[in-house]
Amino acid sequence: MKVAVVGATGLVGTVMLKVLEERNFPLTELIPVASEKSVGKEITFKGKKFPIVSMDTAIGMRPDIALFSAGGNTSLEHAPRFKEAGTTVIDNSSAWRMDPTVKLIVPEVNAHELSIDNKIIANPNCSTIQMVVVLKPLHDKYKIKRVVVSTYQSVTGTGVKAVEQLMNERKGIDGPKAYPYEIDLNVLPHIDVFMENGYTKEEMKMVKETNKIMSDDSIKVTATTVRIPVMGGHSESVNIEFENDFDLAEVRSILEKSPGIIVVDDVANLKYPMPKDAHEKDEVFVGRIRRDESAPKALNLWIVADNLRKGAATNAVQIAEYLIQKELV
Ligand SMILES: NC(=O)c1ccc[n+]([C@@H]2O[C@H](COP(=O)([O-])OP(=O)(O)OC[C@H]3O[C@@H](n4cnc5c(N)ncnc54)[C@H](OP(=O)(O)O)[C@@H]3O)[C@@H](O)[C@H]2O)c1
Q1: Is 12 annotated to bind ligand?
Q2: Which residues form the active site (predicted)?
Q3: By percentage, how much of the chain surpasses pLDDT 70?
Q4: 104 and 153 housed in the same domain
């Protein structure tokens, strides 16, 4: 199993390498790829050094799987070239997500949709992934009518430059900016670009991707996505209105039994999910589970996950593991 990691020097790529190592992914050859400026530099994997190679060199090596996290334009240009060489691409950018011929996969929700013909597979947006892992088992039981979500997103979701901006601001250094305003001691109700309808692209991703992953356009979703000066993961306040009534203890029990979810909900002992605790974990954490007392059949939840792990690298590696397990690659 030859595996290329495209964007190996980036925030997601670095975590991708860590996750592959930790999960003892059955690879026989690792091919790290980054931009031309990084070619020849080395990364370390399982204690061994590997040189970064160019895109063309990697394609020539005909990897079985390529895990892409190098931006949308890089994916649009190069994923089809890997596909042409017989490689299955799992892409972290937004480039292919809404392409009707491309599957958008969260293994806990819809891995069963994958077949041997899917040679470019899209990894959803980080905020969407952690939300649908929780929505799916509740939708199966009570049928979701509407979701209102507000996010509190980590700067690691923007990439290396954003982490540098936050760190520089803390040290009083005037360096390169990833955001239009200061991020330290601030909150930006603005993630990705603004669209004509007044929403940001990130907000509309949460709407459209949720419908696609859940294969159900009847679920109404509205989102407000917000950047905060935090590093460990994204948090979400989620209000869910169901078709059918629910029992709170049963909701908790369903979530506790669902794959990939850890319930942390003991307010008497001040236990609830936080980015500091989710950092470097692969699971999605849920707490503050309570009835919405302002509406019938409605529930409030607080969902936290490490956006670089379940929101990106872990989800992509889980897709690759599924492909191998089902002999689809
Ligand atoms: N951060 C998240 O939470 C998150 C979550 C889900 C998805 N994503 C997506 O994953 C992608 C990467 O995000 P990131 O946060 O890791 O960004 P990042 O830290 O800025 O890293 C970008 C990576 O892409 C490489 N790259 C850039 N242009 C390239 C090119 N033309 N050819 C080959 N490699 C190139 C860079 O290589 P150099 O070091 O050589 O420049 C670097 O390895 C983006 O599409 C992002 O939307 C990010």
Answers
A1: yes
A2: 126 (acyl-thioester intermediate), 234 (proton acceptor)
A3: 100
A4: no
